[in-house]
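Lecture 7, part B: from sequences to assemblies.

Below are the input chains for today's worked example.
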Amino acid sequence: MNVGLEHYLTVSAMLFCLGLLGVILRRNVLVIYMSLELMLNAANLALVAFSRFNENLTGQMMVFFIITVAAAEVAVGLALIVALYRKRQSAHVEDLTSLKL
Amino acid sequence: MNASLIVLELAVVVLGLVVLVQDWFTPAKDRRTLGYGAVLGVAVVLLYSFFAFDGTETLYAFGNAYVLDGLALWFKRFFLLAALLVLIMATEFSDSFESGQSEFFALTLFALAGMMFAASANDFMLLFVSLELITVTFYVLVSFLRRRVESLEAGVKYLILGALSSGFLVYGIALIFGSAGTMNFNELADKLANNAGLAHKQLLMAGVLLVLVGLGFKMAAVPFQIWAPDVYQGSPTPTTAFLSVGSKAAGVVLLMRLLGTAIPDLAFNLEKLLMAMAAGTILYGSLCAIPQRNLKRLLGYSSIASAGYLLLGFAVMNRAGSSAILYYLAGYLFTVLAAFTVIAVVVKEAGAEDISALGGLAQRSPLLATTLTLAMVSLAGIPPLAGFFGKFLLLKAVIAEGVRWHAYYWLFAVAVVGVLISLYYYFNVVKAIYWSKGATDMTPIPVSVPTRLALAVCIAGMLWLGINPDGALELAVEAVKSLKLA
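Predicted structure of the full complex, as structure tokens:
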């Protein structure tokens, strides 16, 4: 079988949807955060595939930027989640209720 | 390549680093001087921007990824002025942080640099990186009061929803890149105009819609507004102020570039969507603000409604609408920063953020009471203040389009209903200042000299933009000339 652009794009779309489903359905903040990273990686896969099949390296450059930014985001995000866990002793979204009308 | 164009951004980044390094040599009790130093530095950069560039010609740098034109320069000055006033507020507020005062100033400056880069973005790569620079610094700024569970919770909510919106944004950029084969706004516009090499227009449209999610999140437009009230309430007040002015304006300038430079030929397909978003945002913000008792949360909903008014200018998709957006933003800057400066001082005194904390403010500090009243009146859109003229211009642009398509009359009607509803909750705040019963604490509230200056600037701006709109409007009209709009 010849693996073409559409195969990569299908996998990338599936990864994106799985990530989105994870964000919507899971209740643990850490798992939600992992699903968000999955969404970013789905975009990375699509960019690299487009880059390869259109013979244009701009997409690959974009992927480097995305990976770097995602790393910075994870560093800040995990620190935040840990700080909240220390305060609340829970990482569940149902417990995030101190801000209301 | 012309790297000297980014001198303003470089100056801001270096200023942030200097603040961080200087923190080592400053004893804890003198940290405030660093804040005033940062204020001074930003003021110098703002002044320098008037000498260095005049914005009459369009200059490019870094392989056309970075553009410096009238629009970019207008927004850079806007962000610098906003950061200046926010830093004054932050310096006043810095006593409430147990530690890391200098980090707060530095992070504000880094977010400012991100906004200034966003103003010049001419490439999806720079759009993404500058947007993330803003977002990631704001994750920290929002949760800066890390002993308060509200602040942390606001931070985590902003983190999850912000990361979700950047996920959509990145996937959208991937789709646009896949169908157009370029990340550059000018090249994309050329390809669209010639219809060459664009086999998958649907894919491109899907990508644009996903990018719109990311920008809508920044602007707090319906249906991406869920985060705004919680985050506004939980963050430290200076962060809330910067979020509502700077972060929103960054979304606005990027959307302007996207619609006006990157996809001018495709933008008309988004007309209905933008109209629906504008109407929904105005109604949601205005209706949900009615029962609010927390001042910052109330302003959060008011900021959602403002995003709706800004979207009116995008829905009409012409020069008149775009210049009205700039005018509205300028008025919004002075108004909202005046309101938040007053709230920061009052909350520090009273320790509560409820509207009732304003009771007796007219006796306790006439200056604060007058400023907050003016800000509320301006937000409500009553002449002769800045907010009135901004809303007037936006509604005028909408009415003018009604001849072309009658749906614009309905949009106008929705906007007017939104204004009428907003009168009620803004007046509630004014009522609490002057006519609240049972205010027990009547000690005068001291207001420091820098805060007085900041308030004076805000009041002057509100009155000047309201009474003498011609000069500022001319600047706005001049600034949007670089957009390829009708």
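Note for the exam: The helical segments of chain A are 5-25, 29-54, 58-88. Keep this in mind when comparing with the next example.
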